[in-house]
Every structure is written in C-alpha cells, then in structure tokens.
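[job 0412] stage=fold_complex status=start
inputs:
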Amino acid sequence: MHSSARFLIEFGAIILALGLLGRFAARFRFSPIPLYLLAGLAFGEGGLLPLGTSEEFVAIGAEIGVVLLLLMLGLEYSASDLVSNLKTQYTAGLVDAALNALPGAAMALLLGWGPVAAVVLAGVTWISSSGVIAKVLGDLGRLGNRETPVILSVLVLEDLSMAVYLPIITALLAGTGLAAGSLTLAVALGAAALVLLVAVRYGRHISRFVSSDDPEKLLLVVLGLTLLVAGLAQQLQVSAAVGAFLVGIALSGEAAEGAHNLLSPLRDLFAAVFFVFFGLHTDPASIPPVLLPALALAVVTAGTKIATGYWAARRAGISAKGRWRAGGTLVARGEFSIVIAGLAVTAGIEPSLGPLATAYVLILVIVGPLTARYTEPLATRLTGRRDKAAPHTGEIPETTAEEPYEVA
Amino acid sequence: MGTPRVSSTPLPGIGVRYDLTTRERRRVSVVAHRDGERTLNAYRTDDPDACALSVRLTAGETTALIDALLPSHHSPNLLSTTELGLVAERVQLSALSYWNGRVLGETRMRTETGVSIVAVLRRADAVPSPTPDFRLAGGDTLIVIGTREGVESAAAILGRE
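[job 0412] stage=fold_complex status=done
writing structure:
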C-alpha cells in the first residue's frame, strides 16, 4: 500500500477511535484519559493492532501535546495568582510535596530501581490532576464551596513546582554530572524567576505585542513563540515543558484569553495523541507484574493526599466536613503524572516504570472522582459513630441547623 | 445596618467568587467563570462550607435573572402592579394559536378566570374593550387585567395551540 495512504488510514483510525472513546466517557461523566491510555495499549507493540507508518508522527504529536498541556496550564494562571499563592500557601505546598512525593520515591527504592527512577516516581505520585479536579468540582456543584480555594491553591503550587522539578529530572535523565546538573537547575530557576518578574511588571506589554484582532495571526504567533521557546529550553536541558509553561504565564489578559480559546482544541487533539503515545510504548504484558506495587502505591498516596487536603483545609479554618471533601478531591492523578513518566520512558531508564505509572494513573484517575464524592459522607459517618460512642467529646451539633427558625 | 458588602475570592484557573452574607446570616455567592458564565450558589445551614444549591447560568440567563432581581422590576410583559393585588399583562397569541379565527367569547375568559380583556393590539392598531364576537387572529396581543392567579390561568388558556 502507498505509504501516505497507509499513514492517513492509520492516523485517521486512531483519532476516530479516540473521538468515540471521548464520547463514551462524556456519557458516563468521567475523564477520557484512562480510555486514551487503554487505546494506546491496544494499538501499540504487543497490543491488538500494531501500527506502522503513523508511529513517527504520533511521537512528534506527543511531544507537541506535552508542550501544549503545559502552555495551557500556564495560561490558566496569571503571574500574580502564582506569586500570591506562593507567598500565603507555601507551607501547604511543602506538606503536599513531602507527603505525596516521598511514598513514590520509597516505592522505587523498595523495588531496587535506583535514585533517578526514585525522583521520577516521586513526581508521578506528587502531582494531582488539575484537569480532572476542576471538572469534578464543577460536576459536584462545589465551585462555591469554601474549601475550593484551598484545593485550587494546592494545585497552583504543584504546577508551579513543575517549573523547578522538570528541569531537575531532565538533567538527571540526561545523566549530566552534578556540576552540569546544578548549572541547569540554576538556569531553570533563574528563567522561572525572571519570567515571573517580567510577567508581573511588563505583562501588559508582552500581551500587547502578541495580541491581534485576527484569530489566525494570534494562533500562529502564540503557537510559534511557544514551540520556539520550548525548543530553546530543551536545548539548554531545561525541559521543553517548562519553557512552554513559562510562556503561558508570561501571557496575560486579552491575549491569554484569546490564546486559551484558540489553542484548547489543538491541546485536546495533541494531548490525546500524547496519551496514546505513552500507551503505545507500554507493552500490555508488562502491566500485570507491576499491578500489585501500583495498587499499594495508589492506596498509600490516596491516603496521603486526603491527609494533605485535610491539613490544608484545617489551616484555612474550614470545618471537618469541608476538610474531608478537600482531601478526597485532591486524590486524582492524571495528565502530569503521565508527562513525568513519559520523560523517563523516552530516556529509557527502568523499563517497568512506564507500566507502573500507567497502572497507577489508571487506578487513581478512576478512583479520584469517587473519593471526591464519597470521602466526606464516609468520614462523617465513621467519626459520627465514634462521637456517639463517646458523646461528651462531640461538639454541640444542632444549633446551626435551627438558625433560620430563630430569625423567623 | 450598613450597605451589604460583597467580598471576592480568586479561584485560580476558574475565575472569581463573590460572596454576600445576608441580614439573616445566610450566605450566597456567585462564581464568575472566565468564559462569562456564572454559577449561583447558596449554602447549607448544617454545613456552611458546602453548597446546597449550585446552578450554572449562561450569560443570557444571568441577564434575565438580574432583570428579575432589580427592585424596579419591569418585565416586558408586565404593565403595572397595583396595591390592590391586580396585575395587567400582555399575552401574545402564537401564529399557530388554537384561537386563531375564533371569537373572543369562545374563550369564556371572564367566567373561567375572572380576568378582563381590556384591549387587543393588532400590528399598529389597538382595539379597546373588544366585544365577545371579536374575532381573534394569531399574533394578536391581548391586554388582560385580573388577579395574579387569574392572569396566569388566562395566559395558559390563551397559549393553547
């Protein structure tokens, strides 16, 4: 068969399959990410439908997918959001990092994978999925809840930490020495600080330079700028993803709004390709052996995320129910765990890491929305029973419920 | 009792939340999404951190709600509300109306609902005090006066297709 015809058929079939899976996921109101990963497993090596010519394009598409995921993440937040969250919430960020990254690192060391894989797996278990969580908050009607800003600021800090974390693992994976590695890190940190400063001070000028009334020109300028900066960052070993993230933060106001609307469909396309690519490079047969560690890791890090949310919400003066809700909501892991694992898979360290990350994300992306919904009722029932057993320790619960009658 | 204060909380990645605590110590909030949509929230009394109600509104729906909330409420259908509890309202017959071509008496409006039809507006003309043998047509606007309930049932009868 002619190779370009073969490419179109293969690639078209992949995209069509993803579209149908996305519709299926939307009908049952859950994230399509696990289905995309499963589709990748089904297509790739050792899967049901091995691919030929389109594999190369999928690989490039996946690279663009990561860049766009991070660009859009940067566009979501303004520099002032980031700075004010960093100032007020940094302890929550540190607790989050300690509680959730350490179990991943410990598991990697327990499996005898060495320090680099430990740092990677730490990132996989650390970062919650802001995409899944934002959707769950909307679906459960919790956008107005008082614990929601706490949840969001934990997510903001995690995302900001990526600007530091990604260059570290990029350097580690490239196998550069300590001196070269710390130089890269210094470059990355300097660039991040510089971008934040420039974005806070001169954001309006940058946005005015980029913005355009013509959507076509805006699309091309933003996309071109992002890919260029991402490439340069990669060249400097800072990681393309961080470059894209910083571009997103630097853009603000009207330009960010316009770029957000224009690039969303592109992001959806290439991010889906990225998830498929990740699945493609995971042999389905390699998943069953790592299923048990993945399950154990999922249980432990679901617990530590609930503890993180509980702690952060209590710090913000939220009542017990809201603390449980905040904890349960943060459990979902997703796109960024896969982005981090993807870097390790491309670098070719520890062959079991990819399958473990796949299984881990598959579990938590499905369980996350459920814990968001049911952690609070379950915890309230359990603690309520304990209170009934020892009635003197309980607070006086009924007064608030009667308030409206007093007023009337 | 000072003027009510609305406080705002940024929701990074989503938008801004505006909060209001009423005189009766109930809280309501509005989440302004960046795409222009709004979510209207009211809070539970037994768990003041959680929403009892969370309704997503499009920009158009928000405008309609603002119109209803304004003290000088003036719906396009409502002419005036008197102290006696009577309302006057415009009711338009659709083009497919059951009453198209039938006479006014057939609606048995006064017997059924107690409301009076004081005028019929047809294009630029106004026909005051139409008699029971006045022939209605699709597109006519009837001005009816009666109690709130009466006017509502009149609108239901006239809406028949």
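[job 0412] summary: Residues 3-389 of chain A form a domain with the Na+/H+ antiporter like fold fold (CATH 1.20.1530.20).
[job 0412] exit 0
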